[in-house]
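Memo to structure team: turn this sequence into structure tokens by end of day. - J.P.
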Amino acid sequence: MALLVFLLSPLLVLALLCVLIWQAQRAGLREHEPPKGAGAGHTGMSNETSGLRLGR
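Reply from structure team:
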């Protein structure tokens, strides 16, 4: 009996993780606040690349 539990435990854990991921995807996003702070929102990577290339 212990061998059977040992062999089936990875499958049970995988099934549990799949169920949890499925439920989380059905629930949707929890964060609905607008972006705040420096660089928030869509910057088009200008902070990271253009500023360095243009010497800013």
